[in-house]
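Researcher: Please translate sequence to structure tokens.
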Amino acid sequence: MLKKKNLIKSAILLIMTFFLLTCIPMNKSYASDPITGNNSFETAYNFGYWKYKYGTAILPAGENEAYFSFTADSGERIMAQSTYRDEYWGMEITIYDEAGQLIDTRNNPVKPGYVPFIYAKCDPIKIRQKFYVKVTRGNYEGDMYFTVSFEDRIRTGHKTFNFPGTATNPGNKNYDPNGVDSNVLTLDLRNDTSIPNKAIVRSVTTSARQTPSQGNVHHWIMCSQTEHWYESKVSSSSSGHYYITVEDNLKVANVWNFKYNAKATAPSKMTNVKMDVEYEYDITDTYVPY
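Model: Translation complete:
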């Protein structure tokens, strides 16, 4: 009976090793020996700095919790995750700060790839801030085998959007020193499913073709979230660059408006108006329950 039990343990560890070799980037640092005996804050297994660290843990029958520790730096947005199996229903992962204060806890598995997992999040506020991870068994009564790893939650992307219609400008016939605005083009991205959930703008540029091409032209854009018009930093009929950063917290999935200002007396029009957006998002905002 004991021999059979050892064979089962060996088989599970072999499967976990296969998962680690095929599903986790090779530049990660693996705790080569199975992690066990870490059943309190005092005996927490120390991963050190989180980047590229992971390891397989064993939570023996009769033990309810496994503890780990890691460090992360200010500005990083991290998630700790543990692999999950269907028979591990109720399994939970929790992150605490160095003082033992609760940061985040979750027990709802997700499966964005091949292997389901549970995760918890933290946002450190100082260099090499220490955190603890607690994995709780749930309703399963036997030995539990799972992999603990860490990931940067933030992803970046880029997308180009086309404004429908043509912007027309009647020309600055009265020689107004402030120039004359065109009509406004509107682009509604609120239901665009190609945009990751809660994606935030990092930068925006616009491009267009003005006919005839003129000098002293500025592109302007507005986001419905703030209803503030942003003027291009440069004078150009063909492009616009704006003082917009991630600190403005503008969601990509908004209604965007475009117009251009011209000082030339001759009328003109702009076609093929596009908006290029660099954005970032929290990958966990795209997860759906397993």
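Researcher: Any highlights?
Model: The helical segments are 2-23.
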